[in-house]
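During the no-cost extension, the postdoctoral fellow (Dr. R.K.) reprocessed legacy sequence entries with the updated structure-token encoder. One reprocessed record is reproduced below for audit purposes.
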Amino acid sequence: MALRVRVRLRAGGREVATSALVNTGFESSAPDVAVPVEVAKALGLWPPKSARVVSADTGGGEVELVYIEAGRSLRWRGLGEHLGESLHRRGADQRLPRRGARHCHPSRLSL
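Re-encoded structure tokens follow.
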């Protein structure tokens, strides 16, 4: 069962209220936050000043994602004290802008 919660994402001086899907089964060596391109734009993270394209294995096969390291200014609100603090302790600072469930190469993104 999917668990969705209301969150406020903050990067620099910008903040976006949205919903988040928690515990998707995705695992990585460091915490990651995946956001749609429109949210990344609203947070001032898109288009990125520097980024790299990485390959990721998903249930639907291998996809290419834009990987942006944007610092440690992301704040979680609405995730609950335990989860938000856990993410902060682990140094979550990466975002993967993508468009919904359709992951596509940056050259195919409409900016």
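The chain has a mean pLDDT of 68. The domain at 3-104 is CATH 2.40.70 (Cathepsin D, subunit A; domain 1). The remaining legacy entries will be reprocessed before the final report is submitted.
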